[in-house]
Amino acid sequence: MSEQPKILIAGGTGFVGTHLVKPLAADHDVVVLSRSGKAPEGARGMTWNSEPGPWAQELEGAKAVINLVGETIAQRWTEDAKERILESRLKSTRSIGEAIASASQPPTVWVNASAVGIYGDTGPREVTEASPPGTGFTAEVGEAWEAAVNEPELPSTRRVICRLGTVLGKDGGALPRLAKLANFGLGGALGHGEQFVSWIHIDDLVSMIRWSIEHDDIHGVLNATAPNPVTNSMLMSELRAVYGRPPVPKLPAAVFKIVANVVGVPAELLLTGQRAVPAIPLGRGFLFQHDKIRGALQNLLADHPTAWKK
User: Fold this and answer.
1) pLDDT the model gives residue 304
2) How many other C-beta atoms lie within 10 A of the C-beta of residue 135?
3) How many angstroms separate the CA atoms of 252 and 177, rounded?
4) Strands 275-276 and 126-127
5) Which residue of 175, 222, 260, 276 is most buried, as measured by CB atoms within 10 A?
6) Structure confidence at residue 310 as a pLDDT band (50, 70, 90)
7) What are the residue ranges of helices labelled H in 103-201?
């Protein structure tokens, strides 16, 4: 048995999870829970499908468990899809909560994902962790998801909920698709372009999750976003600058809705936004490596042959 402290990651084969494994595996015994039972290099894999099973024994004496499971919200919101999106989050979260409650030596901390979509469409209004939930489908999902984290009585396990914004990485998430549009001269703003994007560099997200595990005084909700959210128009402008592309017209909302319907992406997801700021991480001394959008994009796209460099 490993003498290193153990950390479990449910959903550890996805974009965020794979980025977490490498730094954590340097000084932890990392166990990834996945349907296939496979794990990224450096971690042990265990099969799970959000049901009770042998995986629960791995929680005994663990330092932390991190839950990133949730079906993508970037799909056409049919009634069936809405049910799958919600149930994937609730089932995995409740399963972990029940396993922690049953453990004789429960993990010290449980970090569970949520999303800034819980605030609904905030327009230009800034929101922090103290702001109330909004309205709409993403807000309903967020409220139910976080309620599932808080349901069980877990007197020995600290709980942290990370409300993820748009996670920027060159190998996953939204950035590769947006960058491709900008590089091909199609990087115009969507709709009026004034909807806010609360973004975070993947490296800062990984650091924030590790920081929340290591600091015993961190609990409850954290906005896992950079301190400077930007409008959709500004994001696309900065992407065009990286690729040296000229300004292009905005894509009218009515036209984008037609396009979104064809490609199976909910238009509401991109025509609305949240201006969320990480008040608690900033107030507790968390340091961002990438707090401005241009620097983050330069870092992530610096190896592109046509990328702008300064």
Assistant:
1) 61
2) 10
3) 19
4) parallel
5) 276
6) very low
7) 137-150, 175-183
Reference 206, options 167, 251, 234; nearest CA is: 167
Count helices and strands (H / E) in the chain.
10, 14
Give yes or no for a contact between 85 and 141, defined as CB atoms under 8 angstroms apart.
yes
Task: Count how many Cα atoms sit within 13 Å of the Cα of residue 221 in the half-sphere of its side chain.
Answer: 25
For CA atoms 290, 291, 296, 298, give the dihedral sign: negative
Predicted structure pTM score:
0.94
**Looking at the predicted structure, is the pLDDT value of residue 306 above 60?**
no
Q: What is the pLDDT of residue 248?
A: 87
Closest CA to 231 of 205, 200, 198: 198
Which one-letter amino acid corresponds to residue 287?
Answer: L
DSSP-derived secondary structure letter, 108 = S
Residue range 50-66: average pLDDT? 92
Residues 6+ apart with CB under 8 A from 168: 174, 175, 199, 200, 201, 202, 296, 297, 300
> Residue 72, Cβ neighbours under 10 Å: how many?
10
Whether 113 has a pLDDT exceeding 60, the answer reads yes
> In whole angstroms, what is the distance from residue 186 CA to residue 57 CA?
50
Query: pLDDT band at 4, cuts 50/70/90?
Result: very high
If 0-12 CB within 10 Å is exposed, 13-18 middle and 19+ buried, where does residue 3 land? exposed
Helices (H), 112-174: 137-150
Closest CA to 267 of 194, 193, 199, 191: 191
Residue type, 100: I
